[in-house]
Amino acid sequence: MTLPNDPTMAIDILLEPDARMLERAEANNARLLQVFPKGFALDAAHRPHVTLVQRFVRTAELDQVFAAVEKVLAGVRLDDMELEAIRYYYIPSQEIGLAGIVVKPTPGLLELQAALIEAVAPFTTETGDSSAFVTTPDDPVIDPLLIQYVSAFVPKASGEHFNPHVSTGVATRKDLDQMLAEPFESFDFAFSGAAVYQLGQFGTAARKLKGWD
User: Fold this and answer.
1) What does the mean pLDDT of the chain come to?
2) Cα distances (Å, whole numbers) of residue 20 to 4, 71, 79, 193
3) What DSSP designation does 3 have?
4) How does pLDDT run across 133-169, given as a tens digit for each residue?
5) CB atoms within 10 A of CB 181
6) Phi, psi at residue 194, to the nearest 5°?
7) Number of CB atoms found within 10 A of residue 118's CB
8) Please, are residues 194 and 12 in contact by the beta-carbon 8 Å criterion?
9) Cα R_g (the chain), whole angstroms
């Protein structure tokens, strides 16, 4: 793997869901694209996932990050972690919102998150800029709100504030409010693996750096 020259990288330590979650996420993504074609499709650059930790880390120390994550994962049976998807939600940004399927937190999920936060803490930096993310020529500047979110993920989006979810796409707030008002059929799912990704716009899992089945 060829690493970028940028000294800082925005990463997402995540869990990859099984076919049950993928099917529901892709169906919701198709619905959102119908009403908001400028959104993103779930593909190799926008992998459906459950985020555990988002952090800025030093690019030169990525191998040490991978080793630290692998050590934590060695003590976990991901396929035994049965979870429940309970509702839709979205994060507003002016007139649009980033939608997702909310997962009910479990003690096991919170323990895993806490262990990963501690494991990668020695390699983190306080913040970064657009160069730390995967960008495109058409969209080279990362939303400052996303940079703030990653910078403050620990502690503002972890522990008691953790909201596990699978992001499914983007739409107008009007369409998303309508979606949230509809009944949601909850379902159980499991995980097929774990990975570290470089983040892209909207906090997507844009570039796979390391994976574990």
Assistant:
1) 94
2) 35, 28, 13, 14
3) P
4) 999 898 999 999 999 999 999 999 999 999 999 999 9
5) 8
6) -135, 160
7) 12
8) no
9) 16
Cα pseudo-dihedral 14, 20, 25, 27, rounded to 10: 160
Pair 155, 161: CB distance under 8 Å: yes
* E strand or H helix that includes residue 151: helix 144-151
pTM over 0.85: yes
- 153, HSE (Cβ side, Cα atoms, 13 Å): 27
pLDDT at 54: 98
Q: What is the pLDDT of residue 80?
A: 81
Tokens 């499991």 -> residue? 190
In terms of Cβ atoms closer than 10 Å to its own Cβ (0-12, 13-18, 19+), residue 142 is buried
